[in-house]
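ARCHIVE CARD
Drawer: 12
Card no.: 0347
Subject: one protein chain, sequence and derived structure
Cross-reference: see card 0346
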Amino acid sequence: MKGFVLGLALFSCLVVSVGAKDGKVRTSSMKCEIKGKLNHDTKTNMAYLLQVNGVEFETVDSAAVKDGKFVLSANMDAVPKVGYVVFKDLKTIEPTRVFLDADVLTLEQSKDNGEIVIKGSETNEAYDKLNQETAEMRNVMADAVKKYRNSKLTQEEFDRVEKVYNEAEKKMKNIVLRYIKDNSDNILGFTLLSDNYYNIGGPVVEQYLRQLPEMFRNDAVYKKMARFVEDDKKCLPGNEYNDVELKTPEGETKKLSDFVKEGKLTIIDFWASWCAPCRAEMPNMVKIYEDFRNDGVEIVGISLDKDEAAWKKGIQDMNMTWPQLSDLKFWQSKAAEVYGVRSIPMTVIVAPNGRIIQKNVRGKELYDVAAAWAKKLR
């Protein structure tokens, strides 16, 4: 399970640079005003406009909410930005993403379902349509994740939940990619790409990066995605696997080459004890190891944990009896750097000749790959 995001759950996009839709260069004296109107039964007295500065959020404006109404504003500088509207002591409304690309925007709360809608620019209205198109899929995926975390699921139930999730994710992916393509010249396409690049894959991201206007090229997020593209090439099918030296839970120094051997298919599994999707995938890994370990299929776990006790407990709790390695450096793990790991769980499958044949395969697909190779290697 990976999961495409529309920004609210991830909350990780950075301030971006883009030209005004009308082609005019705006000065710093120009402001984008957000005129808000909440339902009378929505209890809050303050509204805030946040933007990302580096890796932290900062408040760029605040306003008192009176009779459900408020006005927020931000300097447009020479280019529009992305903001988030939040409300004091109000947990019923998620942070609302706003593309600050018009002089005046309106924020209205629906009387029917309480949802927030931003109007006043093509970008915000397109983003609202995207949310509407993907609402059902996001609900299906969220429900599947809840079921996925149930450790008492049988393998059959697990496979059924995963199938439902993957079908919804595939539909979501196609819709998001369509919006990225249709908005490749503006802030919406750029932002959606930055939300989802690690799930789209290096080759496709590289294609979209080439389509983006020159104005994006110096942006920090653009550079981050470009690095991802280069990292992704490190484990493309056909490449030789990269050796790396790490520690076992017993403190012994080992290399991947101690396990990747001729006559064996090796599944390198990047995981962590704190990663819920990793835990959800582990019953499938256990079954693969139990069914095919004697037929030439090896698994090597590489953990991105930083707490040694949690790492060892995770291994024990999830019955992970295959070799385990880690340097306990979290996302700064040497192995994560070498293999360009940006999200977990992630798998890299190495053929008996030491060449990578697939990456990021999980669930039934991974089981089927292991079964096919086990048959060859018997």
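Annotation on reverse: Residues 155-182 form the longest helix (28 residues). Residues 47 and 87 are 5 Å apart (CA to CA).
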